[in-house]
Specification:
It is a single chain. By secondary structure, the protein is of the alpha+beta class. It has one domain (35-339): Sandwich (Jelly Rolls). It has helices spanning 50-63, 76-90, 94-97, 145-171, 259-264, 303-309, 320-329, 334-339, and strands at 42-44, 66-70, 110-118, 121-134, 137-138, 186-194, 206-209, 215-220, 226-231, 241-245, 253-257, 274-276, 284-292, 298-299, 318-319. Strands 1, 2, 3, 4, 5, 6, 8, 11 and 13 form a nine-stranded mixed sheet that branches. β1, α1 and β2 form a beta-alpha-beta unit. α1 crosses α4 and α2 (76-90) crosses α4 (145-171). The longest helix has 27 residues, at 145-171. The chain is globular. The relative contact order is 0.18. Mean pLDDT is 90; it is low at 30-34. This is Fe2OG dioxygenase domain-containing protein. Keywords: Iron, Metal-binding, Oxidoreductase.
């Protein structure tokens, strides 16, 4: 189903039919009413108490798979320049953006609009996206400032992500270098753009999913939209799930663990399931930087965790290329994807 990108034309006065989801796929804003929605954990990466920071990362990863980081080392001016360049791209005339439009998932840079497959039917989700390469950097020539903003931003964000991965390894009882090398050798960025939606109750910006990689680092221009799925394990009398807004402090970065972290940690850390709801009044732009394994890299539960706990591995070994093939075929559905790799 070909579709004109949402950012190419005038503001929509109503939601086009192909963006209207079946009732069972539409967002629900109701909470379970039994507990107050939890707050997004804050991890301060400043200071030299790595043991404390590692504990906080593990606690947030075990409970939510999501947390925000402050004192992360990405300069404010670098973040601002990158966001301005991203917003400028989506404000370009349609013919200039469409020079980078492609349905080839392997092409970088690539501009596209969001199409997802569900139950034999194709639905459109309320998002345009510009995919950028990080290693090596790959970006459009237009706007002119994008490349100059992308390189320092990518370098600083990847440094923060690798610090978090080292601390997560320590917190899990692994060597701090466990996630280095081919296990974190891939990187890419999605620049997501969600124009104002006339009726946010009938569509979504992104369907519920977990990210395929190790860790994702997110920066956004306005709050609201991103939601994480929170599990109530019964301590508060619930035992169910609820969608909770991911509200980060100004200047903070939001991190979430992906499927590979859950596998390597043998289920100790949660891959953060999330979705994006639309807003009626303000356009939202977010930059999601993904850190993931090289395609040929073998992924499996860390042997130290399996042996020390005296428990069997929850997942079988696989190559990351195999995982991505399954992830695409199953349209990112968490349970369907992971069923292929359960031991």
């Amino acid at each position: 189903m070909a579709a004109e990108p949402l950012s190419n034309g005038a503001a929509h006065q109503s939601v086009p039919g192909r963006y209207i989801l079946p009732v069972h796929k539409r967002p629900s804003y109701s909470a379970n009413g039994k507990v107050a929605p939890p707050m997004l954990p804050v991890v301060d990466l400043g200071g030299d108490d790595d043991g404390r920071i590692a504990e906080e990362i593990i606690r947030a990863g075990r409970e939510f798979g999501f947390f925000q980081v402050v004192n992360h080392g990405v300069p404010e001016e670098v973040m601002g320049a990158m966001m301005r360049a991203a917003e400028e791209f989506f404000g370009l005339p349609a013919n200039e953006k469409m020079a980078y439009y492609s349905t080839d998932g392997k092409q970088l840079p690539r501009f596209h609009t969001s199409v997802r497959n569900g139950a034999g039917e194709e639905f459109l989700y309320w998002r345009d996206c510009l995919k950028l390469g990080c290693h090596p950097p790959e970006w459009p020539d237009n706007p002119r400032g994008l490349g100059a903003a992308l390189e320092p931003y990518t370098a600083a964000v990847m440094a923060a992500a690798r610090r978090v991965l080292r601390l997560a390894a320590v917190g899990l009882g692994l060597g701090e270098e466990h996630f280095e090398g081919s296990l974190s050798g891939g990187a890419m960025m999605n620049v997501n753009h969600y124009p104002p939606c006339p009726d946010p109750s009938v569509t979504l910006g992104i369907a519920p999913h977990c990210d395929p990689g190790l860790v994702t680092v997110l920066m956004e221009n306005v709050g609201g939209g991103l939601q994480m799925l929170v599990h109530d394990d019964g301590d508060a009398g619930g035992g169910g799930t609820m969608w909770v807004d991911v509200d980060a402090a100004p200047g903070a970065l939001v991190l979430n663990f992906g499927h590979q972290m859950e596998v390597v940690s043998n289920g100790r850390l949660r891959s953060g399931e999330h979705r994006v709801v639309t807003g009626a009044h303000v356009a939202r732009t977010s930059l999601a930087s993904f850190v993931w394994p090289e395609l040929w890299c073998t992924v499996a539960p860390a042997q130290e965790l399996v042996l020390d706990a005296g428990e069997g591995p929850l997942y079988r070994p696989y190559s990351y290329g195999e995982f991505l093939g399954v992830y695409v075929a199953e349209a990112g559905d968490r349970d369907a994807v992971m069923a292929h790799f359960k031991h």
